[in-house]
């Protein structure tokens, strides 16, 4: 688990194909690696990866074909900048929100514009994630815990303050940038709980919660 508070901007040092997968080597920048051991988890642009090799200024992690195809890690190149966060501990301040490091889908930056010292971004999420995104709710974008300012359909807006711009890769986003999105885990559990006893009968092809479902089961009047 993670908090969505980025600890360092890292740099992709090397990308080595290995048996159809990819081994990434990432220079960790200012990230404190003194308490990291082999097998520990580090979030890279919001994707939970396992450290398989370490030195004082970098680590390596294996990335599966599925992860490369479903996240923005497949778009990286040598020299790409990435957000880094070590896994939380029981002593960690939960400054953001609970983040699993399991990406739900790829979003796309639609626009950006300055707003005083902040920058406002408009992001388009995959249609299937729209129901989990709420105004003033939390969302994780490339590993960064953020508050949603406005939602319209599958598009939502974020206001990024100067500190976040300086401490993450968000400052480099432009129209068309692909971003990893993870919705608030509470929304996912709530959806499942609303199914009640019907949860055991739901399949990936049986559909999600609809207004008709809520009305049928007494959640709407």
From TrEMBL:
Biological or metabolic pathway of the protein: Cofactor biosynthesis; riboflavin biosynthesis; riboflavin from 2-hydroxy-3-oxobutyl phosphate and 5-amino-6-(D-ribitylamino)uracil: step 2/2
GO biological process: riboflavin biosynthetic process
Protein name: Riboflavin synthase
Organism: Thiothrix subterranea
Lumazine-binding repeat copies, ranges: 1-97, 98-194
Xref: NCBIfam families: PRK09289.1, PRK13020.1, ribE
Keywords assigned by UniProt, alphabetized: Repeat, Riboflavin biosynthesis, Transferase
Boundaries of every Lumazine-binding domain copy: 1-97, 98-194
Entries under InterPro entries matching the protein: ATP_synth_asu-like_sf (IPR023366), Lumazine-bd (IPR001783), Lumazine-bd_dom (IPR026017), Riboflavin_synthase-like_b-brl (IPR017938)
GO terms, molecular function: riboflavin synthase activity
Lineage: Bacteria, Pseudomonadati, Pseudomonadota, Gammaproteobacteria, Thiotrichales
Assembly with partners or alone: Homotrimer.
Reactions the enzyme catalyzes: 2 6,7-dimethyl-8-(1-D-ribityl)lumazine + H(+) = 5-amino-6-(D-ribitylamino)uracil + riboflavin
Pfam families the record matches: Lum_binding
Listed EC numbers: 2.5.1.9
Entry function: Catalyzes the dismutation of two molecules of 6,7-dimethyl-8-ribityllumazine, resulting in the formation of riboflavin and 5-amino-6-(D-ribitylamino)uracil.
Coiled coil: none
